[in-house]
Structure formats: structure tokens, C-alpha cells
Amino acid sequence: MDMIFLSEVKVQTKLGVPEWERMTPQTIILDIEIGYDLSKACNSDAITDTIDYGLVVSRIRDTLAEHHFSLVEALADHVCQLILKEFHALRVKVKVAKPMILPGLKALGVIIERHKIS
Questions:
Q1: Structurally, how many domains does the chain consist of?
Q2: Helices 72-86, 53-66: inter-axial angle, 10-degree rounding
Q3: Domain span holding position 69
Q4: Residue 59's domain is classified under what CATH number?
Q5: In whole angstroms, what is the distance from residue 109 CA to residue 62 CA?
Q6: Beta pairing class for 26-36 and 91-99
Q7: Is the pTM above the cut of 0.90?
């Protein structure tokens, strides 16, 4: 399967279990792999035959500005479902990292993978 990847996408969102953590937006970092058949785009060299990653990033930023989550798991699944449904991906893998949320910890997060249901 062909893959489009978006590495270290920085996004502002309200995320966390304690209420105080969701009071102000914080930066999270996303690594995203999108499974898609790119053979047509390879031959045509046309953006219409692939997924426009600029639109993907813009849509993720918009939805995470609107939606707030307690858990990184719920946020990761939301992003996966958005890409599967709106961009017709075959597979999506999302890594969500909350940097420096605890003393002595570089980041915490999850990696979630979802597939298109046939």
C-alpha cells in the first residue's frame, strides 16, 4: 500500500483529563501515515489523483480547534475517522504526542491505526 506521511504536525487544541488542562489550548504533535493508492497520481502528476495534504492539515487544525478531548486516545481516533471519511483513505495511522506534560518526561501519547471498512 502506498503511504502519504505528515511528520510532526503541530496543532493547538484543548486536551486533558483535569479540567484546568482544558482551560487553554496546548500544542500537541501529530505524526500521520495515510494509506492510499497513489498509482494514478504517479502517472498523471495531478493533485486531483491524490490526497491534498495541505487540506488534510487544515481540516485537522479546524476540527481540533472546535472539539475538545479528555483523552489522547479519543483525539487520535477522531483524526483517523476524519481522514478515512473525508479524504477516502484506505488506512490511517496517527501518533499523538503531548510534549513535556510531566516533569522529566519528553512526551506522552498514543499511536492508533484504523482501516477503511468495506
A1: 1
A2: 140
A3: 2-115
A4: 3.30.1130.10
A5: 21
A6: antiparallel
A7: yes
